Amino acid sequence: MAEHDLPIIDLEPLVSGAPGGLEKVAAEIGRAAREIGFFYVRNHGVDSALVERTFAAAHRFFAEPIETKMALTKDFYKTNRGYVPMKGENLDPDKPADLKEAFNIGLDLAPDDPRIVSGEPFRAVNQWPEIPGWKETVLSYFNSVWGLGRLIHRAVATDLGTDPAYFEDKLDAPLATLRLLHYPPQPAGAEAGQIGAGTHTDYGNLTILLPDAVGGLEVRRRDGVWLKAPTIDGTFVCNIGDCLMRWTNDVYVSTPHRVVNSGGRQRYSIAFFLDPNPDAQVVCLPGCVPEGQSAAYEPISGADYLKSRLDASYAPVKSKSAGG
């Protein structure tokens, strides 16, 4: 693999339901998930006009006065909803705070939803800026890429030798997060080691990332070489997260990555992190355990897995939410 290349997978055979399309795409995704953990997808079925409107919504929000944005920080570090100010996170705890700001939403639930009322783990009411049409645009995007993530999981299940629908009832009410991100140009006076998003892996199953044309995403290959992941028109960048790595008994491996915004321009990206339902059982798939061996991980619920990853590090200054 060249130092700048990641696999580009055409999803048209899967999206269209063409004969043999699921199996073809499954083999390509499986190969990428085993070898590098990152891949582009094209012909994915997400409307390009919706993509443009969502980027416009991100630009509009981050242009708001800081006082307006800070009003949407209520209980962020408990709910993972709302605004994160510049330098409010630290994805690499050994480095200075990240040079980015962000806004998060999750599954959109009403205050009287039983899941909210009962205190179901990691459920919360979204916060919304008072910008006409903003909520509708961002929710439409959330729902569209959520559908894409479930479709990709059909290919994942097929590659791993199980029913294509295996993940469907584990991702139909997910602990998913849509995150809008804004990175300023890398300042000349940045602290040593301070970049847009520090080196990290993602916690969930699958990340679907939409960076703008500025670029800046870098992926660490298995041999330690850092690859640039340039923006390719009409594609998303996808990567395997730690939870899917656990589900596959390390057959799939999550890959460290970072953002270095060194191009002298403002950078925007939109990341969708697909974590399983809170009550989904993350248990090793049978085909992922070699004969005569045991699974490397005990079964755990989606909520307990997420809690186990956040407890030690999810604090107001040194948090490990996500970047992309």
Task: Kindly describe this structure.
This protein is an alpha+beta fold. About 25% of the residues lie in helices and about 20% in strands. It has one domain: B-lactam Antibiotic, Isopenicillin N Synthase, Chain (Jelly Rolls), CATH 2.60.120.330. It contains nine helices and 14 strands. The strands form three sheets. It has an eight-stranded mixed sheet. The longest helix has 26 residues. It is globular and about 60 Å long.
Total count of helical runs of at least 4 residues: 9
Summed over residues and divided by their number, the pLDDT gives a mean of 87
Number of strand segments: 14
Low-confidence stretches: 312-320
Q: What fraction, in percent, of the residue positions are helical?
A: 25-40%
Q: What's the CATH architecture?
A: Sandwich
Rg estimate, integer Å:
19 Å
* Beta-strand percent range: 15-25%
Cα shape: globular
Please tell me the total number of domains: 1
CATH fold description: Jelly Rolls
Mind telling me the CATH superfamily name?
B-lactam Antibiotic, Isopenicillin N Synthase, Chain
Q: How far do the termini sit from each other?
A: 22 Å
> How would you classify the helix and strand content by structural class?
alpha+beta
CATH class: Mainly Beta
Task: Give a quick account of the main beta sheet: strands, pairing sense, barrel closure.
Answer: 8 strands, mixed
Oligomer: single chain
Order of helices and strands: EHHEHHHEEHHEEEEEEHEEEEH
